[in-house]
Structure of Stage 0 sporulation protein A homolog:
Amino acid sequence: MAKKVLVVDDEKLIVKGIRFSLEQDGMEVDCAYDGQEALDLATANNYDMILLDVMLPKLDGFEVCQNIREFSTVPIVMLTAKGDDMDKILGLEYGADDYITKPFNILEVKARIKAIMRRAALGQSVASDHSAEENVVENGDLVLDKSNRRLTILGTEYNLTSKEFDMLLLLVTNPRKVFSREDLLHTIWGSDYPGDERTVDVHVRRLREKIEPNPKEPKYVRTKWGVGYYYQ
């Protein structure tokens, strides 16, 4: 089945170029030119990936990303202005999985999309090779369902992004093992990921805000000062 991608940008020439290139690779592409249109399409359709510009009419990219994260864990890649670190950080804060800076090479965009889709497909393949029992990881208060990518804590379900889920799963399945920011970046995002270790810090902070009773005094995802993070 063809992969389905939503491309969102108010610059129609950029959308046209991306759409043409992705369709040449056999992908199905929907397009939106403002934030509200993007949100409506994301609500009505199941996408494998969303490319989302930051600067949009009606709703900006951050608002769209935040709203989508209320109901979906679809991978979201933000398109940001070149060198604007704040856009990158804010995108991650609002639940984006990755970012690409403008101006970009379409080959980079395609490579990033394919890498994320490969990781998602690999996760589904691994899940299908295991029994339902093996797909459920329980540790303390947490229950992670790998096949459905669901987290429940004391019976309450929490909506995590794909990267948040992957990071928590890695920590939970290696209790008390401390992972450096570099280790987490390479393991979760891949060794070819161009971002820096702040990406990890932002995702840990978002994860704590979702699952910790008191994010300032984390019970689950803890910090080993000067080293990294671990699950207790």
Observations:
- The chain has two domains: 4-124, 128-231.
